[in-house]
Amino acid sequence: MNNDRKSIAQQVKEILIQRIGSGELRPGDRVVEAKLAEEVQASSIPVREAIRELVAIGVLEFAPRRGAWVREVSLEEVIESLEVRAELDRLAASRAAVKLRGRCGKLRATVRRIVAAAKKRDFVAFQEHNQVFHRSIVEAAENRALLRVWGSLAFDVHTRVIMD
């Protein structure tokens, strides 16, 4: 991933999502704008923008004078998101099949990592490799709307599984 091409707001957004996905930030944890701005050596404007975007997609919650914090994802939300993602994965697979024909080496390697993580009962690694596998197929479908919608459900699916 080349951060030179990404805006500071996008970099901050990815940092926060990674920290939530890894469990470093847990439901209820506050996201401190000033601390993040200092960490990425940027003004508070792109940090605020990243927080607004994460609030908009349901990753964070926000209240005036309280700031932002990591949203709790219910089991019901995870189930609903998995149902939608299953349909999106089916669409992605049908669109990507021709494009991936004969070029599945990376997918096979990712499947080996998924299986190895499962055998070790390393659920964090399992989930990370599983996300890479599915996202690779969605990206191969070359449909920006599909990728955007699929990605918007990643938080609900990914974080609850990791947290539990």
Provide keyphrases for this structure:
164 residues, mainly alpha, three-stranded antiparallel beta sheet, 8 helices, 3 strands, 6% strand
Largest sheet: 3 strands, antiparallel
Output the helix-strand order: HEHHEEHHHHH
Spans where pLDDT lies below 50 across 5 or more residues: none
Query: What is the overall pLDDT average?
Result: 87
Tally of helical runs = 8
Net shape: globular
> How is the largest sheet built, in terms of strand order?
1-3-2
| Quaternary structure type | single chain
Give your account of this protein's structure.
By secondary structure, this protein is mainly alpha-helical. The protein is built from 8 helices and 3 strands; from the N terminus they run αβααββααααα. The protein has helices at residues 8-22, 33-39, 44-56, 75-100, 105-120, 123-140, 144-152, 154-163, and strands at residues 30-31, 60-63, 67-70. Strands 1-3-2 form a 3-stranded antiparallel sheet. A hairpin with a 3-residue loop joins strand 2 and strand 3. The radius of gyration is 17 Å and the shape is globular. The chain starts with 7 loop residues before the first helix and ends with a helix. The mean pLDDT is 87.
List strands and helices in order, with pairings.
Elements: H1 8-22, E1 30-31, H2 33-39, H3 44-56, E2 60-63, E3 67-70, H4 75-100, H5 105-120, H6 123-140, H7 144-152, H8 154-163
Antiparallel strand pairs: 1-3, 2-3
Helix pairs in contact: 1-3, 1-8, 2-3, 4-6, 4-8, 5-6, 6-8
